[in-house]
Amino acid sequence: MSRATGPLAEALAAGPVLLDGGLSNQLADQGCDLSGGLWTGRVLAERPEEVEAAHTAYIRAGAEVLITATYQLGHDPGLLERGVRVADRAARAADRPVWVAASVGPYGAVLADGSEYRGRYGLSVARLTAFHRPRVEALRAAGPDVLALETVPDTDEAEALLRVLAGTGARAWLSYTVEAGRTRAGQPLPEAFALAAAAPEVIAVGVNCCDPAQVLPALEAAASVTDKPLLAYPNDGSVWEAGAGRWHAPRTPAPWPVAAWRSAGARLIGGCCRIGPSEIDGLGRRLRTGRKSSGTPDGPDPY
User: Which one, of 21, 208, 39, lies nearest residue 109 by Cα?
Assistant: First the structure.
């Protein structure tokens, strides 16, 4: 059994830890059907062996943390538990320690209409808290190493998620999706990150599913209000068009100045949508060698 036995927080204190990449793009590459509101959750429900294969592909690429296929699920406790169990099987089959992070996607992800890139759902913090509590409890009961509160678009949802965790002893990271130096809902990033600064349940804060160019300013904003380890797992710079259900790729690959991210405090680093095993393999090599680079995740070192 090779699943990690020590707390992820201890590993982050010791040095950088490599996250996996986008689960949806890897499942699509494996020929899976992701249509419908459940997205990767559909594959988890219908073909869990394919989800395990996707996790295994990232382990082979060097990933030290697997994020479960529970991002877009609602309140089905059996399916939420399955997501953790499938990732756990892949982690235990590895030849080295691997942590399992249970994905807690935002309310907008469950709507499956791109709302997580806008926020401001029109719901109170109390209603968002009531929405998230049962799914967080179900995921916690499944026994992951950490909860990934990810792609959070605004401070109302962050506050709701932190209310759910308060006093539970759970461990989680909090990751916003950002644009133009603010949350997707337009709030200042120092204000957003400050919410988690005093929360003992939060072991790391940062950003995910954003343009790589947005990462460094966000990390600097986080570092101005907290000394917690930071995290970064952007997408490839593409823009999601919810109505058409497709990504619009950038004309040129977005730079990944990983050395600058690390200097800003990033310790948990990986990729989100459209970042696959080959990019994670390249990113892992860069983290291991400590090279200064502003290339793409797997690109050459121009320095």
Answer: 39
Q: How far apart are CA 159 and CA 165, in angstroms?
A: 10
Spatial neighbors of 45 by CB under 8 A, at least 6 apart, are 38, 79, 82
Residue 188 CA, chain-centre distance (Å), reads 21
In a domain, 93, yes or no: yes
Domain count, the chain: 1
232-271 as b/e, with b when 16 or more CB fall inside 10 Å?
bbbbbbeebeeeeeebeeeeeebbbbbbbbbebbbbbbbb
Q: Which residue has the tokens 């790589």?
A: 212
pTM of the model: 0.93
CA separation for the pair 54, 56 (Å, rounded): 5
Which CATH number belongs to the domain containing residue 138 in this structure? 3.20.20.330
d(CA 14, CA 266): 12
Residue 298 lies in a domain: no
According to DSSP, the β-strands at 246-248 and 239-241 are antiparallel
CA-CA-CA-CA dihedral for 129, 242, 271, 235, to nearest 10 = -120
Q: How far apart are CA 180 and CA 169, in angstroms?
A: 34
Closest CA to 287 of 12, 4, 11, 16: 16
Q: Determine the 3-state secondary structure of 56 from DSSP.
A: helix
Query: Is 2 part of a structural domain of the chain?
Result: no
What residues make up the domain containing 51?
8-289
Mean pLDDT, each 10-residue run in order, the chain (303 residues): 84 96 95 89 96 98 98 94 98 97 96 88 96 98 98 97 97 97 96 95 97 96 97 84 67 87 97 94 89 57 29
